[in-house]
Amino acid sequence: MQHILIADDNHDITDILSTYSKMEGFEPIVAADGEEAIRLFNEYSPDVVLLDVMMPKEDGYEVCRKIRSKSNVPVILITARGEDFDKIMGLDIGADDYIVKPFSPREVMARVRAVLRRMTNNKNDNSSEDVITISNLEINLEEYTLHIGGKKIALTKKEIETMWTLASNPNKVFTRDNLLDSLWGFDYFGDSRTVDSHIKRLRAKIDAVEHPEWTIKTIWGVGYKFEIIEKE
Questions:
Q1: How does pLDDT run across 188-220, given as a tens digit for each residue?
Q2: Which range of residues forms the domain containing residue 88?
């Protein structure tokens, strides 16, 4: 049976999410604060994590960061705040999805099923080859590492997945909606700024090392592509 860690200081929320989790065949593990969430995560190694952002002791962002430092388990953040900054921050630290209160517990379970399907599909798709090498770029999806010219670039989980998606399809243009759907798998209500901000942060990191034979190119009004630069 798969375990789901539910971390929220609101007992009504954890009770209802636990009930729906059991209906979906999960064994729920409940934490009332961030410190307990980390302890239970280390103890049970759950298959998916639901994190409230505003928790006592340690908030959901900090818990997510600590989980990401050791695991690629799917993480869904839940918060009462819906500002773009909060959404972008949650995605940038490695969350796989983002739900704003009030929510439907059925929707939460649908998101859980979706992130688990994406993880399974990614493993199946990349089972034969977990490394992409293009010029001085090397992406290892099994180890979640990226090197440029032999130098390791510190990227978040989503940034590495973005590079993998783009570099796996050189010169293919991805719309912002394509990237949202393939990387986060949820409708962001048509707001493309999440992708733009994500790519901006990614570029700032990879551009610290020269890569004259490839680049992430903006296709204005459309999206982005991994472009291999032909030598003249």
A1: 444 567 788 888 889 999 999 999 999 999 998
A2: 3-124
